[in-house]
């Protein structure tokens, strides 16, 4: 399973990249606004930190506008992945861009039928938002299972990118289902390393090692 960081904060991305476990980055207009940085500039900087896909989202709602924005965004770097919303115009744009060999992440997916449409449009990634799904009383992980089943039924190559991940159980469940990628805030990714028994074990070993009076 690939791990993408869902952030536009440079320091956090560098920190995760240093672990060697970061496979890409996703941003959205809210995350860009939170960073307080220029969209193009910060996206260029992120593309220089990871060689994996970096999702940059269009804000136009019509196909022509999306194509115009995508043209600007894909010039930033070879690893830019154009993010489009799951609308008719978004999928028209997805089809056009992927036919030309540009990576596309179809975002704001909330149903398995929407995911089926994105795969038919040739999406590189489909982003079902599990956290927002759960927030509204639906079962986000059931959505991931349904998409996995449908994609496997037809051999679609579109990668399932589990988005709106809020905690480690989302990561665990997504991995058990066989999602291809998950994108999460850096705090959630860092939390995966932690276990109280690991910390306790280190503490005990170090205490015993100190009694030996040895050094390595
Ligand atoms: C995905 O690409 C989105 O940026 C993100 O996962 C949305 O998460 P949120 O629901 O926590 O805003």
Protein model, in words:
The protein contains 11 helices and 8 strands. It is an alpha/beta fold. The chain has a single domain (2-212), classed as Aldolase class I (TIM Barrel), CATH 3.20.20.70. Strands 1-2-3-4-5-6-7-8 form an 8-stranded parallel barrel, surrounded by 5 helices. β4 (80-85), α5 (88-99) and β5 form a beta-alpha-beta unit. α6 (112-120) packs parallel to α8 and α8 (140-154) packs parallel to α9. The longest helix is centred in the last third of the chain and has 17 residues, at 196-212. It is globular and about 70 Å long. The mean pLDDT is 98. It binds erythose-4-phosphate. Erythose-4-phosphate (E4P) is lined by residues 6, 26, 28, 107, 127, 129, 131-132, 163-164, 183. Residues 6, 26, 28, 107, 127, 129, 131-132, 163-164, 183 line the site of erythose-4-phosphate.
CATH superfamily membership, which one? Aldolase class I
Mean pLDDT: 98
The CATH topology assignment is TIM Barrel
Give the strand content. Answer: 15-25%
Number of domains: 1
CATH level 1 name: Alpha Beta
Number of strands: 8
Which kinds of small molecule does this entry bind, naming each only once? Answer: erythose-4-phosphate
Based on helices, strands and strand pairing, what is the structural class? alpha/beta
Features:
216 residues; alpha/beta; TIM Barrel; 8-stranded parallel barrel; 8 strands; binds erythose-4-phosphate
List the helices and strands and how they pair.
Blueprint: E1 2-6, H1 10-17, E2 24-26, H2 29-35, H3 39-49, E3 54-57, H4 63-74, E4 80-85, H5 88-99, E5 104-109, H6 112-120, E6 125-128, H7 130-135, H8 140-154, E7 159-162, H9 168-177, E8 181-184, H10 186-191, H11 196-212
Parallel strand pairs: 1-2, 1-8, 2-3, 3-4, 4-5, 5-6, 6-7, 7-8
The chain binds erythose-4-phosphate (E4P).
Organism: Novosphingobium ginsenosidimutans
Enzyme class: transferase
Active site: 83 (schiff-base intermediate with substrate)
């Amino acid at each position: 399973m690939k791990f993408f960081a869902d952030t536009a904060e440079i320091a956090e991305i560098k920190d995760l990249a240093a672990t060697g476990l970061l496979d890409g980055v996703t941003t959205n207009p809210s995350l860009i606004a939170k960073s307080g940085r220029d969209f193009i500039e910060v996206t260029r900087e992120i593309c220089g930190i990871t060689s994996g896909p970096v999702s940059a989202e269009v804000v136009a709602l019509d196909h022509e506008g999306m194509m115009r924005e995508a043209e600007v965004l894909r010039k930033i770097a070879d690893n830019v992945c154009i993010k489009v919303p799951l609308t008719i115009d978004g999928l028209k744009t997805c089809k056009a861009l992927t036919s030309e060999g540009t990576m596309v992440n179809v975002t704001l997916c909330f149903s398995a039928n929407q995911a089926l449409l994105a795969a038919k449009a040739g999406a590189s990634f489909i982003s079902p938002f599990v956290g927002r799904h759960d927030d509204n009383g639906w079962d986000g992980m059931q959505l991931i299972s349904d998409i996995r089943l449908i994609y496997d039924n037809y051999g679609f190559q579109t990668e399932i990118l589990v988005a709106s991940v809020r905690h480690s159980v989302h990561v665990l469940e997504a991995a058990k289902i066989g999602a291809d990628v998950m994108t999460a805030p850096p705090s959630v990714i860092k939390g995966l390393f932690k276990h109280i028994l690991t910390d306790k074990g280190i503490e005990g070993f170090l205490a015993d090692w100190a009694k030996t009076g040895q050094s390595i």
